[in-house]
Amino acid sequence: MQNLPREDIDCLSPPERLALAYATRRGRAAWEAFFLFERRLAETARPGREPLMIQLRLAWWRDRLAEPVERWPVSEPTLARLHAWGEHRSHLSSLVDGWEASVVGEDGGAALSSARVNAFAALAALLGETSLDDVRRAAQDLVSPSEATARSPRLSRAMRPLAVLRALAVRSAQGRPATPLADMAHVIRIGILGR
């Protein structure tokens, strides 16, 4: 895992890169893999592409997640990073299904939102979390920030990246004016305290 290219991390959004700064050493590889996998799926399903081609590409990802890692192509860097998920990688199939539903379905993104919440819960389980209720609440706030509750759930050290992403999404959804110093102080507090 140490020899994987750094440049693929550079494609992550600034909030994702900031969130990674709060990942534990043990959990960083799993967080990176999760963010990069979501990026690949979003790129695959981006608007303007032919729906049939999107479905074929998403099916490729679904097939890879279902097969043993020894059969994965070595030339695919995102798959190389997904080794960090071990047997938990099967939980990522719902993300593929969610992206497919968002492209060809008429569910308004509900399947993708649900899949993202479940993927964060799977990531928490991978990192040793046993109580997933707060993780699910924070993930739900992240995917639907305009419906977020006023009080954020307290997340463990392993899930601080989710706490940071949730805080940034909720602040943005509330339409607060950008105040870089106050925003940074808020993110640092969330990253340190988990709430």
Automatic annotation (TrEMBL):
Lineage top rank: taxon: Bacteria
Entry protein name: Phytoene synthase
Source organism: Novosphingobium aromaticivorans (strain ATCC 700278 / DSM 12444 / CCUG 56034 / CIP 105152 / NBRC 16084 / F199)
